[in-house]
Backbone:
């Protein structure tokens, strides 16, 4: 079944248009498909997922996340993506909103999930091949190993992620 998205405006508000992922390149100007990333912080470390080599920007590191599906709220999409990619189950109430930005064809929403300890992870084999828990200094040093958009948002939000 084809993946379908609800398009949003520059403020993340749904505009009543559904759009197929397969036609991603033709999203009308000024509209976006919502996507999410969830930074998981355990103590003073953040979880970064090692992307599968067959994915775009394969073998780079990223925060778990992905596209919000039609009919999902943005927080519900974040919860689903986190569970699918790394097997961490939570609720929208546990997510701390960090920021959102419309760029290109994406409306990227960033969340933080703070955990006391890291549960046993179950990686989605077609998406994630490994992970690391890294400190701020380690993540700063490996910034060039992050996916391009993830790196951009990390550099903007890092003080809020490591407060």
Residues:
């Amino acid at each position: 079944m084809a993946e379908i998205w609800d398009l949003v405006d520059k403020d993340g508000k749904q505009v009543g248009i559904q759009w197929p992922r397969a036609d991603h390149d033709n999203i009308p100007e000024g509209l976006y498909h919502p996507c999410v990333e969830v930074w998981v912080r355990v103590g003073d470390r953040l979880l970064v997922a090692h992307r599968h080599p067959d994915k775009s920007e394969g073998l780079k590191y990223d925060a778990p996340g992905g596209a919000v599906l039609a009919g999902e709220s943005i927080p519900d999409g974040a919860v689903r993506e986190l569970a699918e990619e790394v097997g961490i189950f939570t609720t929208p109430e546990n997510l701390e909103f960090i920021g959102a930005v419309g760029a290109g064809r994406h409306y990227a929403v960033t969340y933080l999930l703070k955990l006391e300890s890291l549960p046993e992870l179950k990686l989605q084999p077609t998406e994630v091949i490994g992970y690391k828990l890294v400190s701020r200094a380690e993540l700063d040093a490996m910034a060039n190993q992050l996916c391009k958009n993830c790196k951009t948002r990390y550099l903007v939000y890092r003080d809020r992620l490591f407060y």
In short: The chain has three helices and nine strands. Residues 4-161 form a domain with the Nucleoside Triphosphate Pyrophosphohydrolase fold (CATH 3.90.79.10). The longest strand covers residues 33-42.
